[in-house]
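thread: overnight batch results

M.L. [08:02]
morning all. the overnight job finished for the chain we discussed friday. pasting input first so we're all looking at the same thing
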Amino acid sequence: MNNLLNYEPPNDHFLNRVILITGANRGIGRSLAKALLHYGATVVLHGRDLKALNSVVNESCYDKKNYSLEILDLKSTDKRLYENFTNQILKKYGKLDGVVHNAGILGERKTIENYNADIWNNVLQVNLNSVFMLTKELLPLLHHSSDPSMIFTTSGVGNCGRAKWGAYSVSKFGVEGLAQTLADELKNTTIRVNYIDPGATRTDMRKKAYPDEDPNKLPSPDEILSLYLYLLGPDSTGITGHRMKV
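M.L. [08:03]
and the structure it wrote out:
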């Protein structure tokens, strides 16, 4: 594992690979999108805010043919929006070689007894239900690839519940179950499915969860990308069904 955390792909390692990242406008998703563009991938950046997505690619000079910006509100339960989102990718690229389910929201840090029901439903929708809905629509595009990879994002509270983590913890338990089920269902295909716990990282979500913590003591998103890059590229072909921690 230590070798993987120091993994660095060669230039153009992701040439001709089309990779979708949800929540690409900030945090880990933002850093990963920029890294994949640097290594030659065609990147589909997902978010809710077009201006924020534009800022990701405007920070460096990338050819517009190497990326697209796709808007989808993951709070929506409208199946047609997920179908339309997928159809846009299909029309532009005809396939997907990688998907990183990165988008997520924290919700409240309160006990179950005091948890707001509307916030609970929003967290479960964004962090789990939308992941199922999007995965279901995207799988045919992954089948069009010769070496596809799907990464789900979990957490330290995704397999061990802790007080006051409420809907976020429950949603990550669900994500791990979804990833395990999908990996088993697809074990005789070329699609590999893995899930990553990025650990404590200097992100807005982490700051919201731990407001008294010194963020300068945490690694930045740019410093934890090696495992993502390894699992998305051809060097990890055949590796599936694993929970990995940065």
